Amino acid sequence: MINFDQNATTPVDEAVLQELVRATREYDGNSSSGHSLGLKAGKFLEDCRARVAKVLNAAKAAEIVFTSGGTESDNAAINGIAWAMRRQQGRTGVITSAIEHRAVLAPCEWLKSQGFDLTVLGVDRNGVADLEQYREALSRKTALVSVMLANNETGTIQPILEMAAEARRQGAALHTDAVQAVGKMPVDVQALGVDSLSLSAHKFYGPKGVGVMYLREGTPYLPYTLGGTHEGSRRAGTVAVPQIAAMTLALELAEKKRKEKGDAVRALRDELVKQVLARIPGAHLNGDLSKCTLNTASIRFDGVYGGYLLRELDKQGILASAGSACMWERTKPSHVLTALGLSEAEGGGTLRFSLGFCNTRDEVNKVVDTLARLVPELRKNPAPAAAIQATG
Ligand code: PLP
Q1: Residue 183: left (phi > 0), alpha (psi -120 to 50), or beta?
Q2: What domains can you pick out in the chain, each with its CATH number?
Q3: Would you say residue 392 has pLDDT above 80?
Q4: CA of 246 relative to ligand 1 center, distance in Å
Q5: Is 326 a catalytic residue?
Q6: Full-prediction pTM beyond 0.85?
Q7: Å from CA of 377 to ligand 1 middle
């Protein structure tokens, strides 16, 4: 298998898997229990919290809240902050962007249905949020801005630093979905100036079902899950200590690998794009690689149905995706590609290639050779009735 679909999920690192097993054996107590087994798990949990805070450069370990993953972190941050800002300060404005993951767009739309005033920012052809529209929408009434750090489909990095500074001037809180950023760019909560940030372990070689919500101290927040005082009363539910232990190690390793191997992954991604554009007429890059995370490329092929091409690649042992991974069965282009201004045909012919630390130059060559053979063949055939689409 050649896995060029690592924005959907990453393979669990072997050392992380061992840590998951070790922590399951050693810290099997309930971290809320007052007896020795519980206290042991509770102490280890706090060690993990401090280690995560260190990697993210959070001022305090207590600003780290463990969750079940990116979707929960996004929902908790958006609902928790927006409702608290409304209750404490009477603010009802929410700003997001058109290219967010559904885990952000859906709670923002739900807030709108509850009387919040929602602005959805457009993006330019490269997928960068419209800062002018942002400045117009931002006001003393804004409760929350939620704009992602890096996009899952195109890899485009958003101007969060500027957006957070402007939100602060208006007294609004800013949350960023950084699920696709870890291991691909620095994620420093203080340097970014964000109030809240979401992470998901399975996007950086950790297990599925565990994540982080960073919540800056003092940020208004109403807990989204009720029923316990876990996680400083911000997230009720027995804490998944072994999964958190594995995620903590995965986060440390991903940051280390980014520093050591990030340039090599970027070089492979750039080589893939260069060869595909040179060898396949009618292949185009969506966006601008200089504005993207180091591992992602979104490429469209004229006259080809992306779902069909994915299926043929899969038969050759090559994994890629179209749009986002959670949309495997959808036949329409994703909302992200549409927001970029791509037509239905352009979006439908787009594939996402997302590389990881284990990919090699030989794999790039094999993928390019296979595409160079398949694309002209598929152009001779009409689009099939059923198609495959992408994930994550
Ligand atoms: N946000 C982004 C940008 C994502 O890519 C994903 C996953 O695909 C999520 C949120 C959801 O994360 P999780 O799979 O941990 O629920």
Answers
A1: left
A2: 14-253 (3.40.640.10), 260-391 (3.90.1150.10)
A3: no
A4: 18
A5: yes
A6: yes
A7: 34
* Interval between CA 336 and ligand 1 midpoint (Å): 14
Residue owning the nearest CA to atom 9 of ligand 1: 70
Q: Tell me the helix, strand and coil percentages in the chain, rounded to 5.
A: 45, 15, 40
Say which of 48, 108, 292, 326 is annotated catalytic: 326
Has residue 383 got a pLDDT over 70? no
**What backbone torsions phi and psi does residue 60 show, to the nearest 5 degrees?**
-135, 145
Tokens of 305: 């149905």
Please tell me the residue having the least CA distance from ligand 1 atom 10.
70
- Among 218, 97, 117, CA closest to 168: 218
**For residues 17 and 275, what is the distance between their CA atoms, to the nearest angstrom?**
35
Contact present, 274 and 225 (Cβ < 8 Å): no
Question: What does the pLDDT look like over 133-186, one tens digit per residue?
Answer: 999 999 999 999 999 999 999 999 999 999 999 999 999 999 999 999 999 999
How far away, in angstroms, is 69 Cα from ligand 1 center? 8
Question: Whole-angstrom Cα distance, residue 232 to residue 193?
Answer: 22
The closest of 220, 190, 207 to 88, measured between CA atoms, is 220
pLDDT, tens only, 258-313: 999 999 999 999 999 999 999 999 999 999 999 999 999 999 999 998 989 999 99
CA distance 114 to 96: 16
Q: Which of 157, 179, 298 to mutate to test the pocket of ligand 1 (most atoms within 8 A of CB)?
A: 179
Task: Give the contacts of 363 (CB within 8 A, at least 6 positions apart).
Answer: 2, 4
Q: What residues does ligand 1 touch, defined as CB less than 6 Å away? A: 69-71, 74, 101, 103, 148, 152, 177, 179-180, 200, 211, 325, 392
